[in-house]
Design a protein that fits this description.
By secondary structure, the chain is mostly beta strands. The chain has two helices and eleven strands. Helices cover about 10% and strands about 30% of the residues.
Length: about 160
């Protein structure tokens, strides 16, 4: 049985929850501060299907990515652009939104995993992006060169069940 000490623990939890995942490989052309993407994404990643097979070829340095809008949506809070993690957490609770999981981002923000809404993604509402249909998020154990090698960390995954 896979547990929290395994680097792919959270990714496996997402697969079991019904999330389509895909891997993105490091982009050898990426240089810090450039407009190049840190990773090379597979063609038509938006059409990835749920299943563990996407994780079978993972190696350290690869990005693990989840397609949003299928099993869940993600409220992406970025303090560098005006988002406030604590205020957004409180607002979600105040509106009765169940947070399935919370992940700390390398930009000192948060990803709040919530039930899929059927809505399209929307970007940059004062530091809060809504990753839903047509979107994706990086998930642990992804390490981001753009953020000086920092990665994503699970705060809690209470609403996703057990791996």
């Amino acid at each position: 049985m896979i547990g929290p000490d395994d680097p792919l623990w959270f990714a496996v939890l997402l697969v079991k929850f019904g999330a389509p995942l895909f891997l993105a490989t490091p982009n050898s052309m990426y240089v810090a501060g450039s407009r190049e993407s840190e990773f090379s994404f597979p063609r038509e990643w938006q059409h990835s299907l749920p299943g563990r097979s996407s994780l079978s070829t993972w190696s350290e340095g690869d990005a693990v990515c989840a397609v949003t809008g299928v099993a869940f949506d993600v409220v992406d809070v970025d303090p560098r652009n005006g988002g406030n993690v604590d205020a957004e957490r409180d607002a979600l609770a105040e509106h009765g939104v169940t947070v399935l999981a919370e992940v700390r981002t390398p930009g000192v923000g948060a990803h709040f995993y919530v039930e899929a809404s059927g809505r399209p993604k929307s970007n940059n509402q004062h530091g809060i992006d809504f990753q839903a249909a047509g979107g994706m998020v990086f998930v642990p154990p992804t390490i981001r060169p753009k953020y000086r090698g920092l990665g994503y960390a699970v705060i809690h995954a209470r609403g996703l069940g057990d791996a």
